[in-house]
Amino acid sequence: MTRSLLSLGVLALASMALALALGSVTVSPGDLWQVIQGEGSTLHRTLLLDLRLPRTLAAFGTGGLLAVAGALMQVLLRNPLADPYVLGLSGGAAVGALLAMLMGMGTLIISGSAFAGAMLATVLVFGLAHGTGSWTPSRLLLTGVVVAAGWGAMITLMLAITPSYKLPGMLYWLMGDVSYARSPWPAVVVLAVAVVLIMPLARNLNVLARGPMQAAALGVSVRPLEWTIYVLASLLTATAVTTAGSIGFVGLIVPHMLRLILGNDQRIILPASALAGGTLLVLADTLARTMIAPEQLPVGVITALLGVPTFLYLLHRSR
Fold it and tell me: What's the pTM?
């Protein structure tokens, strides 16, 4: 366990160092080390500390949030191919953000609207799935799919009535773009706090993954634990979407691959997902910045290009 997490931690640091070094202006390892020590030229310090470091931290925090949310959703729905966006959270966030963009609001209002939209989607899905009785994973999943379809229709309507000069920013946000991150710290702080809060629950999550009846027989309070997972996964996804827009496949691919490699112990999977998800999105964002430089691609395009073949391979392997 310790060796795996240590290896992922080293890989995460290496990916962030690579992200800091590469770009329109390449920074040598020596210059990078000087800036880390508080030395170096003013140009390099401004480039690394004011421009690249916040974006790198935002990418790492967002990727970690999505991966941990995916791991939680896969336990909650007892489906190894569940995704943090499966319950329509990204759709609600997108509607909130696009409404703010359509009204010409600033970045802070757009972020707040995205978070409010994601929380509204959470309450809506949970309320509809619960109904007058109790909710089940299948009922929650089906409700989320239907609500997500409704959000998709609203997004299409807003894009159709939006003036053409506002469309590029909206489309980039919908595809996921770390450059829109106003500050990396909310994502990083929420990720760190979430991992600390979730780890004491990891043993119960291992039991819950075997089924609610077996978990209840072993003394686990199933319903409060499921509510906790749902709320935490929703908050993590909402924070990620608010930070960088809708970025797909990270929450689906990372936890599933880690389970194939490390097993199904949540005490390992949850922190490993935070490290691996952050590393993946940092590398994807670096590729998005440098592939057709000086132009930049939305990072969601890169994760989709990487995620689709990976998902198909995992699906074929699990057959």
Answer: 0.89
